[in-house]
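Collaborator request, handled under Task 6.
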Amino acid sequence: MINGLKQGILPFSNQSNNFPEPENLQTREQLWEQIKSKNPKLTPDDPKGKSKLFHLCCMCGFAKDVLALFEELHETPLGQAAYENVIARCLYLGDREKALRLAEELATSRLWAAAAPTQVRPMNFFEDPNLREFLLEPESLRRIREAALIDNGSLIRK
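Structure tokens returned to the collaborator:
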């Protein structure tokens, strides 16, 4: 797998893991107004409302708003795609350490913790273009490996 990453033969081998923000981005407040117009019963403090706002922000919001919403939703179970979106934005904003911490957290998520030792780990984790650089560096790969296999449960999201 690591040789495949080094040779660039995986699906995301174009060496560009940080895509620019799209044009015509909307602020968190503008996106909330869209949600509110369709779902008047939701409030910004409601986890369901925040979750909807997070996903809409991932599609057409600013990177800093996505990160802020992710932090607010930290106690809410989120899927792998949410982590991948946030990791991409951390890298886009230049916060590599936070992106690596999130990769560790993703590695210890219930998806990994639920797998038996003899099961194959999810390949899409290793194919994500934003995780590529972490998997090619010995120190970050060690951190991810330890988080995935030796974690004491502190990184697993409840």
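The cover message to the collaborator said: "Residues 1-5, 7-19 have pLDDT under 50 and may be disordered. The CA atoms of residues 55 and 82 lie 8 Å apart. Please let us know whether this matches your experimental observations."
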